[in-house]
Design goal:
By secondary structure, this protein is α+β, with helices and mostly antiparallel strands. The protein has a domain of 45 residues. The protein has a two-stranded antiparallel sheet. The longest helix is centred in the N-terminal third of the chain and has 19 residues.
């Protein structure tokens, strides 16, 4: 009789998904591409949330952009 392992917990599944996303982003964005200028605009009012910011392309992933926007807006994010 074979032993059946229990399914992974929700925490393990989320950790595995986050690791896979980070590995995919690091593979998709090659190093040494230079930088981009980003300016965030509020979709409700159409007003800019600050001046343009220069970001290295290798660092321009969703998580880093969210952290940058929240810091520009003066919000604490977790």
């Amino acid at each position: 009789m074979a032993t059946v392992l229990p399914p992974p917990s929700k925490r393990q599944k989320l950790a595995a998904e986050n690791d896979a996303i980070e590995r995919a982003e690091s593979v998709r964005i090659p190093e040494g591409l230079g930088s981009i200028r980003v300016q965030f605009i509020d979709s409700a009012s159409g007003q800019s949330t600050g001046g343009p910011v220069s970001i290295p392309i290798g660092q321009a992933n969703i998580k880093n952009l969210e952290l940058l926007l929240n810091s520009l807006k003066g919000q604490v994010c977790t």
